[in-house]
Amino acid sequence: MNVFSCSEQDLHAYVDGRADETLHRQIEAYLASNPEAASEVERLRLERQRLRAALENMPASAIPPRLDPFRIRRELRARSQRRMAVAASLVLTLSLGTLGGWQLRDMSMRQTYLPMADATQAYRLFATDDMAQKVDMKTSEPAQLQGWLNRHFVQAASLPDFSAYGFKPVGGRLMASDKGAAAMVLYQNDQGQAIVYYVRPPGELLNFGAGNRRDGNLLTQYWRQGRYFYAVVSPTDNPATLPVQKAVEPGQT
């Protein structure tokens, strides 16, 4: 059984007397069982009567086409549809603007972000005269430090061996990053000079390759291996660290 579905266009045709006999009967049956639709038809009829009453004293030749009741209703519907289209386009524009704003924000952050800045900061905070007292894991045994790293990082890279350049590990310390745990391992030579080896997980904006950057008298050399980013931070005004810097130069790690 087909259920008649009455559209707004059908209702206007019914009120204006433009519905054929079959449609007319269908609409009357529909209105008999739909009080809300019947009320709408009555409103349309009253509107049509008011328009006719306002125009009945005017000569037919003086009635401009723009005052035709059917044309007026049609233009009102078209105007409503245009408003809806404008509203939809505004919503789309705002959505795209918001998305574009976040993209610009990410681009700005990428442009201003200093790779492995936290590694550089860790050196300034902990590579001091009393550095040995600031570590969580105090040992000079590379195997113990490697085990310590492996407990906190999945498939961490092997701890670098700088003993050929006079630097040996003295301990490690857990750090915090925006994406989870980070860690540093302090190395020291016989003169008490220090370098820092740093490990951290990647963040949302940390999508960079191997490289290096200078911050004051510190050189931060960084690279990615497997799951993590790594860095070695060392002073540039100390001849003892030059061999380490050459060994860690991107492409050598």
Notes on the protein architecture:
With about 250 residues, the protein is α+β, with helices and mostly antiparallel strands. α1 packs across α3. It contains 7 helices and 6 strands. Residues about 105-110 have low confidence and may be disordered. The protein has 3 domains: about 10-55, no CATH class; about 65-110; about 115-250, Protein Transport Mog1p, Chain A (3-Layer(aba) Sandwich). About 45% of the residues lie in helices and about 20% in strands. A hairpin with a 2-residue loop joins β1 (about 170-175) and β2.
Give me some keywords for this one.
3 domains; alpha+beta; single chain; 45% helix; 6-stranded antiparallel β-sheet; Protein Transport Mog1p, Chain A; 253 residues
Topology, pairings included?
Elements: H1 8-15, H2 21-32, H3 35-55, H4 69-112, H5 117-126, H6 142-152, E1 168-177, E2 180-188, E3 194-200, E4 211-215, E5 218-225, E6 228-235, H7 242-248
Antiparallel strand pairs: 1-2, 2-3, 3-6, 4-5, 5-6
